[in-house]
Amino acid sequence: MLRKTPLAAALMTIVAAPVAAPLYAQTAPQAAPQATAPATPATQSAQAQAPAAADTAAPAEGSTLPAVRVNGHADTSGDFQADTSSVGAKVPTALRDIPQAVTVVPKALLQSQAVTSFSDALRNVPGITIGAAEAGQIGNNINLRGFSARTDIYLDGFRDRGQYYRDTFNLESIDVLYGPSSLYFGRGSTGGVINQVSKQPNLKPRADVSLMAGTHDRYRATVDVNQPINDTTAVRVNAFGQDIGTTRDVMKSKDYGIAPEIKFGIGTPTEVTLTALIEHNRDQPDYGVPALNGHPAPVDRKTFYGFTDDRTIQDVQTVSARIKHRFNDNLTLRNQTQFSHYGTEARATNPAAVLTGPLGTSTALTNGNYTTLPLSSLYVKLQGKNRTINDHSVYNSTDLEAKFDTGFLKHDVVTGVDLSHETYSNQTFTATAAGLPLNTLAIVPLVDPVYTTRPASTRTVATNLAESSANGIGLYVNDTVSIGEHWKVVGGVRWDRYEAAINNSINQPPYATQTNFFTSVRGGIIWQPSDWQSYYVSYGTSFNPSLEALTLTNGQQNLPPENNRSYEVGAKWDLLGGGLSVTQSLFNIEKTNARTADSTGGYHLDGDVRVRGYQLGVAGHITNKWQVFGGYTYMDGEVLKALDGTTGHSLANTPRNMLTLWTTYAFTPNWEIGGGPTYMSSRYAANTNYVSVPGYTRWDAMAAYHAKKFDIQFNVLNMTDKKYYDALVPSDGGRAVPGVGRTFIGTLNYRFL
Predict the structure, then answer these.
(1) Where do the record's region annotations for Disordered lie (predicted)?
(2) Of 110, 119, 466, 465, which Cα lies nearest the Cα of 286?
(3) Strands 671-680 and 657-665: what pairing?
(4) Is 418 helix (H, G, I), strand (E, B) or coil?
(5) 496 compared with 24, residue with greater pLDDT
(6) Residue 481: pLDDT band by 50, 70, 90 thresholds?
(7) Which residues contact 553 (CB under 8 A, 6 or more apart)?
(8) pLDDT digits over 65-94, tens only?
(9) Full set of structural domains in the chain with CATH
């Protein structure tokens, strides 16, 4: 039998599916008739809370009713399926009209999985891998389709550039757009962007409390209160507090946050929304375990390399104002402003070199740390990662959406301007214990290190203070042209001016400034032969300045931005009467002038990095009782050209195969069960390919009882207690953070209204 590659098989599937789907739609189990379909237990609970919700939330006279998908379910609050997203077009747009792959992770899925952290939520997104704390980077470090997306995380359309551990307590969904997208987002977005969509005030009263407890000392409480003030105004407050332990020794997080919001003019031509996010984290960053013989050291996964008084304290304050004015059905003006401050005080420790002896003068292993010595003869040098970070940003965005006809062509034009001002300071410190080499806190056994507080003899000295700032302006226009019933052409262009400067008190260069001009483009053709299928081809570009993250490696200050381009072809289908969405795409992303270092340490734009692959996504109802959400990605990431000796190597933290699947079944009106696997193939910790991490399959499960006023839910994470490695760090040859062990979680959700 001829063996097909994943790309060839994907291409055949895209071609064959339009033929098979109508047949499948005729023979597959159908949902109940649209007007009378029974709801799932989750939607039953939502309906019971406010039977008069339709009357309460009715728009004011003369306003335009929102679009509604009729898919056989009376309420979509518990659905895994999404119909629209603003991440691919700046304004709410049907997913079928976005000529790029988009994954929407809804609140209902996160609740079903008992997910509370941003990183855990993203495990549902094919093509995303997690990076751990590294060097000056802490908080959520994400790779999207093989490229870093640390500065490509957004909150309600604005860049959320702070280095902190995000929570899901105030999120309605997480929307992921794949591929270079500087047209709408400016600098960055090599692999795509990740947008957090906040919960919004509405005219439906609610008061929910959720209590969670689990093994390994996991405790959490959340509150969600929404209160209409009058017919057009509502207030909503979400809050959480948690004390979370893990299956790793020592590691613990104590966090809390509140997000108040008020919305005026609901359902009227002019809506004004004021929001805030205040979050405080006291966490212990996990720098993982060092490598040995080309793989993570074979120590107990609970082993922690650090001190019991390590901590990272983070404070986040974000306030925003949004004004939307609808002149008529065809003309809408929006303006948004956001102010953010992120403060971090970190005193952390990371396992650096693996040593052949207990002395600071012992030989350090390199290049994968290959050795024939027994584990009991090896030691690990612990280094301090102390720093104080302050990060401020001010963003303003104005866009105008106009719909009009020119002959037989129908236009939907979005044009706008983005303004930004950002400042960043990072004061680093060197911590050295008495009698040890500079920046060494301890030398501990590789196996069973003793857990103590940081040595009393530690001497901490302030080192480099980096202070940087940036100003940006972006002008863009995008037009979606409908040609008849079945064709759409999407095209847009953006011009950016990005000016950034940095001052270093000790490091080189002492001062550097850059002013970058860049023009980004986006184009796509969409063919929609029927209301349940959509096919597209697209092209997009983006750019990455050296000072993109307001940090700079010496030698890169005079380099122009890196350029990225993407080609994508895909299909989107709404099957089973619209209840089940299936998406597929083939993609090619290439960074054509990647920064690369030569043998002397000088940097050049002579590199070339490419990721090509295939992606499949599925979300929605197979029957009115059976839901599913999942995806598969094949990624072939390769360094095509580099001056540092990595030409031909696999791209770091980019597995060939990733699969995620979650399904639930309501087998009675009250009882629901669910579960599914997460699979990831082997991957390398760094482009050097010295250290590889094995693949794994993790299984999770849940069972829930739904009543009118409450839900009781039990989740099991990692049912088989599989030992696997979750996040990767390229530093020190490559480190890996062990994933969570078997964990049991119980949740009680109570609805007062």
Answers:
(1) 35-60
(2) 119
(3) antiparallel
(4) strand
(5) 496
(6) very high
(7) 546, 603
(8) 444 444 333 345 689 999 999 998 888 999
(9) 206-751 (2.40.170.20)
